[in-house]
Amino acid sequence: MSVTSYSARVVYAAATMAALSLTATVAAPRLSAQVGGIAVGAVAPADFTLSSLDGASVDLRAMIGKKPVVMEFWATWCPLCRKLEPAFKSAKAQYGSQVAFLNIGVPDNQSIERQKAYVTERSMDGMFVFDAESKMMKAYAVPHTSYVVVLDKTGKVVYTGVGGDQDLDAAIRKALPGS
Asked: Which residues of 56-67 are buried (b: 16+ CB within 10 A; e: fewer)?
């Protein structure tokens, strides 16, 4: 085999690999924030009364439809939830007067006492409730812990997402008037 023939084959192979790589990149689906769960645009179910971590009853109907609401379905064992904690703290500081924040504890390998101890230990503030019978999880079709649902003030879902790297600021802005 001549040097020219070998060089041509190398160039052809490299060009073919580059073309295949470009095709795979263009054809690959882009990830969006909607990863299952309740559909964006749906009216959020609100007929729930859950226990706060202090044992008080919290009626969701008193919360939804008054002002925007940011909900997170979380657990103490969830690393993605832990990763979201600083973003939630920042969002609560920035939007706390305009938006209600609700952290919904999932019952998988959890107890209300375990979640209360975790929240106390980490000095977390806000409204924390426990979905002991998974009724709210089922109604919102929760795909995973660290699942965030943002509602506008009418109770319509404007954002859902999963994971520790969610842009809560952008999600919340979708729910604010004039956005």
From this structure: eebebeebbbeb
Residue closest to 110 by CA, chosen among 62, 145, 160: 145
Count of residues making up the chain: 179
pLDDT in tens, 47-98: 999 999 999 999 999 999 889 999 999 999 999 999 999 999 999 999 999 9
Q: For residue range 121-166, what is the model confidence (pLDDT) as tens digits?
A: 999 988 999 999 999 999 999 999 999 999 999 999 999 999 999 9
Q: Which helix (H) or strand (E) holds 118?
A: helix 112-121
| Rounded Cα distance, 4 and 14, in Å | 15
**Token representation of residue 58:** 């919290």
Q: Which two structure tokens, joined as six digits, stand for 81?
A: 């939830």
SS3 per-residue string spanning 54-74: CCCEEEHHHCCCCCCEEEEEE
Q: Give the phi and the psi of residue 117 in degrees, each rounded to 5.
A: -60, -40
Tell which residue, 37, 22, 39, 112, has the closest CA to residue 76: 112
Report d(CA 45, CA 87) in Å as an integer: 25
Print burial letters for 124-154: b (CB count within 10 Å at least 16), e (below 16). eeebbbbbeeeebbeebebeebbbbbbbbbe
